[in-house]
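sorry to bug you again but im stuck and you know this stuff better than me. what follows is a protein written twice so to speak, once as letters and once as structure tokens for the fold. id like you to explain what the token line says about the fold, in plain words if possible. anything you notice is useful, everything is just below.
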Amino acid sequence: MRRTAVLVALGALLLLFFVIALWPARVAVGWLVPGGASLAGVSGTVWDGSAARVRVGIMDVGALKWEARPLSFLTGSPTWRLEASRPDGFARATVKILGAQSVAVTDLDLGTTLDAVSAWINLAGTRGNVSARVDEAALEDGGLTSVAGRVVVDSLQPIGLRDVDLGAIQIDIPGGQSGPYVGTVTALSGPLRIDQGRVEVQPDGKFVVDGLVAAQPDAPDMIVQGLEFLGAADARGFRQFRHQGSL
């Protein structure tokens, strides 16, 4: 009798495993995808599948592929490796579900244009390219609980200065912070010099970028004249700048 009960239980577990493994992705979407997101052209299973088009709010993410880490389901933290692609860029990341309102993202690599992410960050018509390597980021109840990584923006062309390339600017946010998340801002190339560049991101997504900026000795006159609108320069020729927004 005991042996029979064990066999029945084992059979039930195997049946449950195969049901989940073959769970069509188009059905799972209604259960797993959070509000504000939509998927079209879904195929495959919840373990290994794809969607022809994904939208998150007003953001067009593009095509998406996913592959589950089966062993993660045994630990109660389902994990998928995601890869999104669109004509102007890509994004790859590992996403772990920690709870009903909690998710962690690691090993995020992204490369695209500023236009592509303008739905998330208002850059007032600024053009350029953006690449990112986010080592870790976690959200709980819609708020950031951790973030660490590097973002590089290059070929910057602010609105009104389409003939000027501001070069590349790098933002680094180290790990081990509990919020706000503070990092550095550095000019890698171009006509600008940045000193004491700083970024601060609040758990609710609001951010501030500030510091001191000056023109390189060989900077175009348009840049030199444009910086004058920031106010008086200090003894070294630097002026204060500040930009704030929300993710």
User: Anything to note?
Assistant: Confidence is low (pLDDT under 50) at residues 1-31. Residues 2-21 form the longest helix (20 residues).
